[in-house]
Each structure stands twice: as C-alpha cells, then as structure tokens.
Amino acid sequence: MKKIFLIILLVFGVSVQAQQTPAPPQTEQVAIFGATAHIGNGEVIENCTIIFVDGKITAIGADLMSPTIGTMINAEGKHVYPGFIAPSKSLGLVEVDAVRASDDQDEIGDMIPNVRSLIAYNAESKVVESMRPNGVLLGQATPQGGRISGTSSIVQFDAWNWEDAAVKTDDGIHMNWPALFRKGNTWQGEPNAFIPNKKYKEQVDEVKTFVENAKAYGKTASKELNLPFAAMQGLFDGSQRLYIHTNGEKEMIDAVTLAEKAGIQHIVIVGGYRAHKITDFLKGHNIAVLVSETHALPKFDDDDYDFPYKLPKLLVDAGLLVGLQNESMANFQTRNLAFYAGQVVGQGMDKETALQLITGNTAKILGIDSNYGTLEIGKSATLFISEGDALDMRTNRLSKAFIDGRDISLETHQTELWKRYMGKYEREGK
Questions:
Q1: pTM for the full model?
Q2: Does 100 share its domain with 69?
Q3: How many domains does the chain have?
C-alpha cells in the first residue's frame, strides 16, 4: 500500500499545487509613464509613455500628454520591454522527465505531422510558470522525437487551459533532418568521434518520398483520409512553416533544396551550428535561423573556443534573420533566455540588436509579428517593466508584466520558496 501511495505522489505531486490564477481581462485603460522603452526593433524611447486599452497598445511616445483616466504606473528610472518569446521548446509538454505520466513531448512513430502539441499543453505547469518572472511570456510548444515530430502551436504563459493559451494554432511542422555524421558508439567498438552516417541517403530518400506523397495526396480530388498527409497540406499552401532541425552545411542545403522543390513556402532552420559557412545560400533562399547552443562547448576540434557564443552575431552580420532557441538547454533553463541574448552583447553585438533575437526577430520567424514582438500601436500589450537592464541577470527584476493587457502574477513556486527561506535566514540573523 505504501508503494502505491508513493507512486501516486510521484505522478500527481507535480500538479498538487497549481500555478497562480490567470489574470482577468483588462477592464480599464493602463498608462505606463517615465520609462525607457525598448521597442524590440532596435529603437529606444526615453521618458516614454505607453497606453493600452482592451489588450492593445493605443499610444506610445516621448511627448504624450498624461492620461487622466484608468491606471497610472510610474516607471521613472525603469525599463519596458516586449514579452520575450521562447521558440521550439517543449514547455508545457513535459513537467518531470523521470515521470512518464507527465511527459507528452514525444509520441510513437517516425513520420507523425498530425500529432498536435497544443492539445497536450499543460497550462498548469510549474515550469511554464517559472518563465514569467524573467520576462519570457510567450513560447512555441513543440513536439520532439522522430523524423517528423508533429505540429507546434504558439502559446502565452498565463492561461486556464490550452484553448485559452493558444496564440497561433498549428503554426508549423517540425522535422529532424538526418545527420551526415553521427557520434560513434564506443560500447559497440566504434571510435569516440563523429563517423559517417552510412544510412544518410536512405534516410533522406524516406523524407523525400513522404513529402512527395503528401503533396500528391493534397492534389487528389477523391481520397481516403490519411491523417499524416492531411496534416502536411499547410506547408504547401503557405499557411504553416516547416521548421527543420539540423546543423551541418550539407544537411541544411539538402533540406532547403528538397523543401523548396516540394513547393514548401516558409522554411526555418533550427540549430544551424554550421550556418555561418553557408550564409550566402541561406540569405539567397530567405531562410531564417533559430540558433541553438549559444552556451555550449565547441562541437569540433577546429572550432574557435568561443564559437557557440558568437554564432548569432556571425549570422546577423551576414544579413540573416536570426532568433535564439537554445535547443540543447533543458526546459527550465529557458527562463534564462534573456541572459543568452545578453551574452551575445559580450561578443560585440549591439544591445538592442541582441534584444531583437528574442523579441521582434523571433516574432517574424514564427509569423506572429503583426501582433507580438515589438511595442507598437495596434499590437498586443504583452510587455513587462524591469527595474534595470533585462538582458543582465543582475538587474533583470520585474515589477509588472502584462499579457494581452492582463496584469499577470509574477509569483511562482520558486519565488514562494525564496521568500520562505529568506525569512528563515533573517529570523536567524544570518
């Protein structure tokens, strides 16, 4: 009986204490005045006033008259930023890796574009909740595993359920492109190094056949329902994006070439470790890159020791549209997204350009820039107020955050623990 009780605690303990109650809709005008506004497109406005009504920004500028109605927030000496966006993460799909019942990020099957991550999204996730105090307010809930993992959706991080969370439903399909080289399995007697993947051509042919069959399926007038093929049709009519997870030069060229020949209109590279080697190709084909592993050791012996740290700058300098994704980082580390952008400043990138890597640029890459990513009239009032520079872990201290104009809670399980133990140390005089 004790064993059964322990299993129940492990499976359901992660959700015993739910996250903060989602904020109600905005009911009155809100005006933030006196702040330094970082617009998310490279522009900065000093002594800025931002006014929003019904979840939309209605006025923003340095010379606005102070409103006389609604809520007034004095942000003098503080900074306002658009909500940060975390692309291509399994946030809300897995809570505890070791607890299978809380893990919905990977389904059985190799070619499963019909698997929709959104319906598995857990709006009560404590991991998701922990993003908000650092300004990460939006994310792309993305399935993992297989060759074609499934369909992602873009969500906001303060919701009752997955329906409320949805910002853009079924925005794209994620494909894990075959690797030309793989890591040797030492336990099978292979060297501890990258060795050729002898099945590369075979695996590429499998992808090609699947994509071609899916396209042919869409042109068939009378057909039996095929869920995987039906789920692919948005790639051919331009309503969805294809996110290709790959890192090598040849792999990226092969993937983009195959996708374009199939008539896929919107292509994004996720990873792009060697993208700096083929920037002319990527720019010529209008391919955006979501860079991963900016905090990592170099993969190859001849890489610069700081190569992963400076890769985003190399790609931006080459004229590519770039966002930060950090695929290798665990979900909980996504809360540090702002600091990954901040360290790129240390590699010589302008601070406002680095901010675009997690705001305006990412919104463009995900196709939500008409409403999110920058502080502009008519766009969503999804933003936050920081006591200082939000890209610096020493001064990223949020005092207010709004999603679609809703004044959301910044309390989490972690802030509760911090307050509890700070009180303990203060009582003990330490």
A1: 0.90
A2: no
A3: 2
